[in-house]
Amino acid sequence: MALTADVTLPNGKKVTVPTGLYINDKWVEGSAPKLDIVNPATEELICQVSAASEKDIDAAVAAARLAFKTTWGKNVTGFERAKLINKLADLIERDSEELAQLESLNNGKPVKFALGGDITDTIGCFRYYAGWADKIVGQTIEVDNKTKLAFTRHEPIGVCGQIIPWNYPINMWAWKVAPALATGCTIVMKPSEITPLTALKLNVLVTEAGFPPGVLNTVPSLGSVGGAALASHLDVDKVAFTGSTITGRKIMEAAAKSNLKKVSLELGGKSPHLIFESADLDQAANWAIMGITWNTGQDCTAGSRLYVQDSIYDKFVDILVKKAKEFVVGPGHDDNVSGGPLVSKTQFERVLNYIAAGKAEGATVACGGEKWNGKGYFVEPTIFTNVKPEMKIVKEEIFGPVLAIGKFQTEEEAIALANDTTYGLGAGLHSKDADQCMRVSSALEAGTVWVNQYNLLNNNVPFGGKKQSGIGRELGSYALEEYTSIKAVHWNFGEKLPWPL
């Protein structure tokens, strides 16, 4: 049975996509029921993909362990790792148009954003961590200069289970894979069961780049099967997960009950966005609407709670609603669209249910709020005003283009409203008062705070959450710590031990 499918990209070209599991540099059939992969813009089946069972996960982990002990891990130099990582970046750059088209087909996002944003950042991420591969160093520590010294080694932690979501399939793949490879870890990657196509296609490039078999293995699977197996596996040394807080709890529990493996979690958010009266209102509105509509609102840091100072509230809402109505949703191949569909029927219905809840609880619809009547899982930007703190649309993560707008009088009140959440992933503020920017950014309880901008990240700047938004950091040099363990070596070169003591 062929483990490939010929699919038609949004630009009309055909491409062959692997549909098997990628284990030990071979494509194999999964032993779990196949996964249906659907185009969210048309609701039509793209293809079917093999799914991993617990037995398949065992095989992938065994391949990763063998590679770690023999051809990767401490067996290659940082220079060699850097060369291969840079080669992979070159190949992604070569195939960037095809990958962007495939990402759009599977996820729904506009090709122009997949190409100019996701793929470009992915290439940059690999180049950044290639630069780190030969610069992972420890310390020499003074103990007794006459007889002893100590030094530390930052060693690869081992086999890493990596579980990524469906909202940024190729970006999240890079965020996980690049630092793990740079440090010398081996990987078992579980992409989302909804959007596995780019992860599978990238393994073709992994082979072409020349990575040893078993260094990177990819096992599409249901989260309850593959994700659960990785989290509880006794031969997995670390699990990295991006997704919901509910699932993050399950992963942490499974890791604790198995072998106490290291865990990093990038979880949900209900991010606040503050607009102070001194702000450039037109620019603040641009950032605010981008902050809730980027990736059709399917973003962990989406600025879904907007608080505006009362003195400018009415004026700012008018500007914002006008800009929201200029937002165009449509299929990803259209260069004129601002956003694509939601990723699946499940997510589409979830967002519509939240919109219905906002209406039922008494919030006012300033724009949007209606069901899409055509084919595809499209939702237009929806803005609610007259919201109250206890409303579901204010408290719970929606993961769609739904914005709740409240107001505040004082800086202290704005900070209190912003921090009134169990999450702490992102936050933003707009003000021309430099002292205020410093005070408020310091007071906001979030892992990332944007000042006079929103939702832009850089590969050399760490990203992660506080409170129930996660544990650990991705990107920047900080991500290297998630994939290394520190060994202390105590060396005695002069002290003689008398005996008996």
From TrEMBL:
Top-level division of the source organism's lineage: Eukaryota
Positions of the catalytic residues: E266
GO molecular function, a single term: aldehyde dehydrogenase [NAD(P)+] activity
Annotated InterPro entries: Ald_DH/histidinol_DH, Ald_DH_C, Ald_DH_CS_GLU, Ald_DH_N, Aldehyde_DH_dom
Residue span, Aldehyde dehydrogenase domain: 27-489
SUPFAM superfamilies linked to this entry: ALDH-like
Pfam families listed in its UniProt record: Aldedh
UniProt KW keywords: Oxidoreductase
Family: Belongs to the aldehyde dehydrogenase family.
Name by which UniProt lists this protein: NAD-aldehyde dehydrogenase
The organism of origin for this protein: Sistotremastrum niveocremeum HHB9708
